[in-house]
Amino acid sequence: MADPIPFTKSLRFDIEHGGTNDEPGVDYTSVAYWHQTHPKPRFPPLPRDLMPVEPQAVPKIAGMIEAESLQPTARATEGTVIVQDMSVWAGYWSGLAQLW
Questions:
Q1: Low-confidence ranges of the chain (pLDDT < 70)
Q2: HSE of 97, CA atoms in CB hemisphere, 13 A
């Protein structure tokens, strides 16, 4: 989720995995953040086996069209459609760019 979702007590979020997107190698993960108002001692370092994994190869699919190549004809309800550089995600992001 790229945008914040306001809530006051709890939040439930479901990710659908199945049907047409039930492909081998499709991995989903989540992360949660919390805000606290008082100091807390540092947490211990993560165990080595929980550290980030090596990037998986981005699949090359015959006939695939990178969305950022559609920028000249893309339209937005509001604002401007731009190509966003995603090179920081090299190894994880096909084409190293996305429409934004």
A1: 1-4, 15-28, 55
A2: 14
